[in-house]
Automatic annotation (TrEMBL):
Source organism of the structure: candidate division WWE3 bacterium
Transmembrane portions of the chain: none
Family: Belongs to the FemABX family.
A Gene Ontology BP annotation from the UniProt entry: peptidoglycan biosynthetic process
Record-linked InterPro entries: Acyl_CoA_acyltransferase (IPR016181), FEMABX (IPR003447), PG_Glycine_Bridge_Synth (IPR050644)
Designated name of the protein: Peptidoglycan bridge formation glycyltransferase FemA/FemB family protein
Domain of life: Bacteria
Record key words, sorted: Acyltransferase, Cell shape, Cell wall biogenesis/degradation, Peptidoglycan synthesis, Transferase
Single GO MF descriptor: aminoacyltransferase activity
């Protein structure tokens, strides 16, 4: 039903290579990443549509050859968890990807998309429109546009205590995804940017990846208009799903502790909330395997 996760895209694996990971791909096309350097030794497999026993065997062969002590799998909603459990993977550890999210079904007509918004959300969009908010979208945005976005994004992260990636990492994502990288900017009627979001597409889905709002923008309802116009714009491009990429999750309070306000904002747009299965890990280190029987290792 939902799209194959962007972390299984070729572009995402190239991005991980830029960060120092090595790419692994099984015979069935399941993509994984291996780290083997001074920062650590691990293999991660993020949201493949499904893994089967042969995929695990291929990945584990690499792990044993490279003396990698741990494999972490973040299952998709379609995964048969028994396959992981029968191969001695255990549900432990902290997530690497947002453990819960909201999907917007862009195959709905605009009237139905509008109807699923909360009353306060519709009011906020109308108010932003009355006040003259203007939204623009830039496909494969220039380095200058990404730099403009990054200033807004970084200032928001500092104000909200969010982790912010370096500008070079975000520029690299845009470079790799090319025409599937889309930047949305909302401005006042005078032309001052008040908010911006960066999206990346893969297959029939598109993902909210990074965003930010200026101090002046937080005094307006322009952020609502940016989200609403993004629904209509991505629908016009033929995308079937928009992943709002992360809402708070009581299962992982430490991981999502600062997400409450943004989660509440996203929930006003309706859609379908989903919670992904817990990460599964396989430990090859005998000491860690023994310890994991008594403690939920946050690794």
């Amino acid at each position: 039903m939902f799209p194959l996760d962007i972390r299984q895209s070729p572009e995402w694996l190239l991005y991980l290579e830029f960060l120092g990971w090595e790419k692994i791909e099984t015979s069935n096309g399941v993509r994984a990443a291996l780290m083997d350097n001074k920062l650590g030794k691990a293999i991660k497999v993020q949201r493949p549509e499904k893994v089967v026993s042969s995929d695990l065997e291929e990945i584990e062969k690499v792990a044993l050859e490279r003396k990698i002590p741990m494999i972490k799998v973040e299952p998709s909603l379609n995964q048969d968890l028994k396959i992981l459990e029968n191969a001695e993977y255990i549900p432990q550890g902290a997530p690497l990807s947002p453990p819960a999210t909201i999907f917007i079904d862009l195959t709905l007509n605009p009237e139905d998309l509008w109807a699923q918004l909360s009353d306060s959300c519709r009011y906020s969009i109308r108010r932003a429109q009355r006040e003259g908010a203007k939204t623009e979208f830039f496909t494969n945005p220039s380095k200058e546009k990404v730099a403009e976005f990054y200033k807004i994004h970084a200032s928001t992260g500092k104000q909200k205590s969010f982790y912010i990636q370096g500008e070079d990492e975000i520029q690299k994502k845009v470079e790799l995804f090319g025409d599937k990288a889309i930047l949305g900017i909302v401005s006042t009627k005078e032309g001052a940017a008040t908010g911006a979001n960066l999206y990346l597409g893969y297959g029939k889905g598109i993902w909210f990846i990074h965003g930010g709002t200026t101090a002046e923008g937080r005094k307006t309802k322009n952020g609502y208009e940016l989200y609403w116009q993004s629904f209509l714009y991505f629908k016009s491009l033929g995308y079937a799903w928009l992943d709002l990429e992360g809402v708070d999750d009581r299962r992982y309070p430490a991981f999502t502790k600062n997400w409450g306000g943004l989660s509440h904002f996203k929930e006003r747009f309706g859609g379908t909330r989903v919670e992904f299965p817990s990460p599964y890990v396989k430990l090859f280190n005998p000491w860690l395997r023994k310890l994991s029987k008594y403690v939920n290792l946050q690794i």
